[in-house]
């Protein structure tokens, strides 16, 4: 495993990081994320919010990909759902359903003390040739998976592709490059099993899901929002922790237990010489 990174930034920034840093130390690196709001002047960012050039601009020693702000960029969006038919599901295509505003599409991530180049799908395909990329998590991870596919397809439209949707696994292949990009639906990362007609969320077990993750060169995990759901949106009937069963418990405690199970699996089952692991931290709600 190259490194374990905790991320809360745009999908294009994530993959800029990967393309620039293919090799990391074997020890896990936890990056503390801080949301800084306010004027760019207070952050000391000397770079403008105009569209970045083709290459990286800035001092790599002071560039902070994980501290920054979203800035308006009228050249965005980089793609439209129509550019990648069948990838973005209709319920997430707000414009198709008549949303009157479009300003929310015109923002890009502006890190402190540097400018990122515009995402280059053709370069990405060359760098990741022969690799397997897997997103595992909830609907946010699914959105990230779909967004990355569309970013690539829109900038390299002539490449041959194949898509198969399933549950829990959906797969998109760039056939000319031998790249497989998958999404594995596991909203809580740990297992949910049916026991006597009940959905049991098992905070200490992950092998049922993890069997699908072993062969990936890049694993991108996320979980968060689904832990707060109640009523008909709740994803379980019972929670199992150790030998005890609960109808409910403190959701943050439950999520922490599950993440410890996940982290232990990463440390003990991931081949660190070939696989890089990222964890996408919780974001604002994405269903409106």
Distance between the termini: 36 Å
What does the average pLDDT come to?
Answer: 82
Strand order of the largest sheet: 1-15-12-6-9-8-7
Molecular shape: globular
Summarize the main sheet. Answer: 7 strands, mixed
| Cα Rg | 20 Å
Helix content: 10-25%
Fraction of residues in β-strands? 25-35%
SS element count, helices? 6
Number of strands: 15
Describe the SSE topology:
Layout: E1 4-7, H1 11-20, H2 40-43, E2 57-58, E3 64-72, E4 107-112, E5 114-115, H3 121-127, E6 132-137, H4 139-155, E7 161-164, E8 169-174, E9 179-185, E10 192-195, E11 198-202, H5 207-210, E12 218-222, E13 238-241, E14 244-246, H6 251-269, E15 276-280
Parallel strand pairs: 1-15, 6-9, 6-12, 11-13, 12-15
Antiparallel strand pairs: 2-5, 3-4, 7-8, 8-9, 10-11, 13-14
Helix pairs in contact: 3-4
